TrEMBL record:
Pfam families: SSF. PROSITE patterns: NA_SOLUT_SYMP_3. Keywords: Membrane, Transmembrane, Transmembrane helix. The keyword Ribosomal protein does not apply. This is Sodium:solute symporter family protein. GO terms for molecular function: D-glucose:sodium symporter activity.
Length: 596
């Protein structure tokens, strides 16, 4: 497909604006705090939109399309379940992260734990996340760009990653987090608008012939349910039970970390105060789960009619490498029907989605490598200017690694499942470490190592030993069980965090709860606590708000779907449920933000 002049004007206009924002904000990046955390002065609405834009990456609609084509709308519970994690972060952990005063979430390890194990954990996890996980996510996003570039622009994989990588590195290395956040604001509206345009055009395709025909088409009718069929227990367990009962709290996944972390935590650190931090994450979860999914789902359903089999992609796009012609190609394939002018907007929206995600991951990854590796262990006296310069160099290095890996991946769902398995069983420790004094650095090291080894075993060894292949949810359950038992046993038999370090953590963060009662009594007897007054524990109130928020957002998500399906009365009923949940949150919110 060839873009017309108007399409190119729209695309290059957006790139020019992004670069101008990068140049303008580069003047403010005089120290590491400004470059990696925007000086901790950003408002909630800007940070919230930035989080949404970051997770609105080029691979996300591809992932949703892959899921819907194979497992129907109900298959999205694989990521919808992470709303529970997100709402827990909003009402329990966002305020705590802001109070911690750290620049990165891995710096937290030396605030919470003591000894050489804490130092090792901080440095190793900075490399583990900043390189391994971060590069894998960026590679997945770049893979989506490869498919879109091949289908819409006729570019080879190498050409796509080179062009996309060069543009993004220039933009990302200039503005730091402030530039990323400001550009994200523009990119959010472009990306959302592009998704809506794609859905409207898909519905008007001659083979689809409108919404009514889509919903009654034989290829689609069995894909519409929000929940798996009770007649198929295996699908019910895989698509709903496991995500809702196990996956959301037990696995670590970038953007949906139990207890918060990664670039979500980075945005919390950039907020003006705890109130802005909480509101930013709340808006992110609302927009991410309630607003964005349906345009992608509609395009995915339409693609089942237009491209019913994988062979359809190869026939329609013979120039595209057959190795990437998988179900997630359905989304970019449907974009080829968008007319000139509108096509420019949609392509620009995808470029915006790509840039918002990659720029965030580049800044986030380099913040780990600079703050938690270079400054902490290599050059503690490094000047602010040198830290910013190194951050820009590492931005380029991370981009190169991600582009190389993108050339060997096949689909977005493959990457999603690999990362879930690697993080299986580690999530619980990130939830409990704030509220149980006995958790220590060795607990986390064991959890990280065991979960990785289990993932390696299932990925490369299990079938080689002659065992039958397990389903992804079975691997997840086994991984969670082995990892959780390993780190819990380690917690009881490994050295305790020193009283001095625990007192320092309590004096700064004061998370409260029964898990600290024993140690608080001991620390008070030693006179190590500055404020030994008994504070009302906020977590029970936070849990109430979490439940209300989760029900409210799920109700709004399904209410929107029911309006699309034409079930108006049921849609209105769920909308009312969402409103009631909002009232509950407003009632309890003052208690959440009350000063300690």
């Amino acid at each position: 497909m060839i873009l017309n002049t108007i399409d190119w004007v729209i695309l290059f206009g957006f790139l020019a604006i992004s670069l101008l924002i990068g140049f303008w904000t580069s003047r403010k990046n005089k120290n590491a705090s400004e470059f990696f955390a925007a000086g901790g002065k950003m408002p909630w609405w800007l940070l919230g939109v930035s989080m949404v834009a970051t997770t609105f990456s080029t691979d996300t609609p591809n992932l949703v399309t892959d899921i819907v084509r194979q497992n129907g709308v109900s298959g999205n519970w694989a990521w919808w379940a992470f709303l529970l994690t997100g709402m827990l972060t909003v009402f329990v952990y966002a305020g705590l992260w802001k109070k911690s005063g750290v620049l990165t979430d891995v710096e937290f390890y030396e605030l919470r734990y003591s000894g050489k194990a804490a130092k090792f954990l901080r440095g190793f996890r900075a490399i583990y996340l900043g390189l391994l996980f971060n590069v894998m996510i960026m590679a997945s996003v770049s893979l989506a760009a490869i498919k879109i570039g091949g289908v819409l622009l006729g570019l080879s994989p190498v050409e796509t990653v080179l062009i996309a990588g060069i543009i993004t590195v220039i933009y990302s290395s200039l503005g730091g987090l402030r530039g990323v956040v400001l550009t994200d604001f523009l990119q959010f509206f472009l990306s959302l608008g592009g998704a809506i345009i794609a859905a409207v055009v898909a519905l008007n395709h001659p083979k689809v012939n409108g919404l009514e025909n889509l919903l009654t088409h034989e290829n689609v009718v069995d894909k519409l349910s929000f929940f798996p069929s009770f007649s198929n227990p295996e699908m019910w367990v895989m698509l709903l039970i496991i995500p809702l009962l196990v996956q959301w709290w037990s696995t670590w996944y970038p953007g949906a970390e139990p207890g918060g972390g990664g670039y979500i935590a980075q945005r919390m650190f950039a907020a003006k105060n705890a109130d802005h931090s909480i509101k930013a994450v709340l808006f992110f979860n609302f927009a991410h789960y309630a607003i964005r999914p349906w345009p992608w789902i509609i395009v995915a359903l339409c693609s089942i009619i237009v491209f019913p089999e994988l062979d359809s992609f190869s026939k329609a796009f013979p120039a595209v490498n057959s190795g990437v012609a998988t179900h997630d190609m359905g989304y970019p394939a449907m974009l080829t029907f968008i007319p000139a002018g509108l096509l420019g907007l949609v392509v620009t929206s995808l470029v915006a989605a790509y840039m918002s995600t990659i720029s965030t991951h580049l800044n986030w990854g380099s913040s780990y490598l600079v703050n938690d590796v270079y400054k902490r262990f290599i050059n503690p006296d490094a000047s602010e200017k040198k830290q910013v310069s190194l951050g820009r160099i590492l931005t380029l290095v991370l981009m190169i690694f991600s582009m190389l890996i993108a050339l060997v991946l096949e689909n977005a769902l493959q990457t999603f499942e690999i990362l879930l398995q690697i993080g299986a069983g580690t999530g619980l420790i990130y939830i409990l470490r704030w509220f149980w004094w006995r958790v220590n650095a060795i607990s986390e090291i064991v959890a990280m190592i065991v979960s990785f080894l289990v993932a390696v075993y299932f990925s490369f060894i299990h079938t080689e030993l002659g065992f039958s292949e397990l389903l992804s949810w079975q691997k997840l359950i086994i991984g969670v069980g082995i990892t959780s038992i390993s780190w819990i046993l380690t917690t009881y038999f490994s050295p305790k965090t020193t009283d001095k370090q625990l007192a320092n953590f309590l004096n700064k963060v004061n998370p409260g709860g029964p898990g600290w009662k024993k140690i608080i009594d001991r620390l008070n007897s030693k006179g190590l606590l500055k404020n030994n007054e008994n504070k009302k524990w906020k977590v029970p109130t936070g849990i109430v708000c979490m439940i209300a928020g989760s029900i409210g957002i799920y109700s709004l998500l399904f209410s929107t779907g029911l309006f699309i399906y034409g079930e108006i009365l049921n849609a209105i009923a769920l909308l009312l449920v969402s409103i009631v949940c909002t009232v509950v949150i407003f009632k309890f919110y003052p208690k959440i933000i009350a000063a300690d």
